[in-house]
Write a structure and sequence with these properties.
By secondary structure, this protein is an all-alpha fold. It has one domain: Orthogonal Bundle (Endonuclease III, domain 1). It comes from marine sediment metagenome. GO terms for molecular function: DNA-3-methyladenine glycosylase activity; metal ion binding.
């Protein structure tokens, strides 16, 4: 796709003209993800996003990857309080104490979950193991949460995770292709709406 194509294509209404946002929308959002490391990263990023715009998180993503060693779960789970306090001074991330400490807690919960289940299969169970294809006409039709997201949220909280409310879980499901919410006018819709 050329630069000119980028200007002319129709995208989901939530996607701004920011090239970083467009790249994320075009290449990542709504594409089924079955890699445990990527699912963990997205779950963490969605939690960091709570109360903020997604573009804020995207702009900080590269720095998060550096600090967290590409979201190395073991590293994140064993960070000391001193290391977390140092993170709170880093302007390259979202400096919210609950989110910074919550990331360690979530990494610990992920490791514990992984001892008992394959986290990929466990997370995908909430959509029956395959992408739920939606056919929404516009942004106003897309829900903020669903019964499946409610169930995922409840299970994640029970497993010890934080920043995993139903709205965050639904955004996570959209981002990782557990649900396909590109709207019908979006250029990505035809390819991703094909029933598998």
């Amino acid at each position: 796709m050329t630069a000119t194509d980028h200007l002319s294509v129709v995208r989901c209404q939530w996607c701004s003209a920011d090239p970083l946002y467009q790249q994320y929308h075009d290449q990542e959002w709504g594409v089924p993800c079955y890699e445990a490391d990527n699912l963990f990263e997205m779950l963490m990023l969605e939690g960091f996003q709570a109360g903020l715009s997604w573009i804020t998180v995207l702009r900080k993503r590269a720095h998060y990857r550096t600090l967290y060693r590409n979201f190395d779960v073991q590293f994140m789970a064993t960070q000391s309080d001193e290391q977390l306090q140092a993170l709170l001074l880093d302007t390259g991330i979202i400096r919210n104490r609950l989110k910074v400490y919550g990331a360690r807690r979530n990494a610990q919960a992920w490791l514990k979950l992984s001892e008992q289940h394959d986290p990929v299969t466990w997370l995908w169970q909430f959509v029956g193991g395959q992408t739920q294809i939606n056919h929404f006409a516009g942004l106003r039709d897309i829900p903020a949460k669903t019964a499946e997201a409610e169930a995922m949220s409840k299970a994640l909280k029970k497993a010890g995770f934080t920043f995993v409310g139903p709205t965050i879980c639904y955004a996570f499901m959209q981002a990782t292709g557990m649900v396909m919410d590109h709207t019908q006018d979006c250029f990505r819709y035809p390819a991703l709406a094909k029933e598998s």
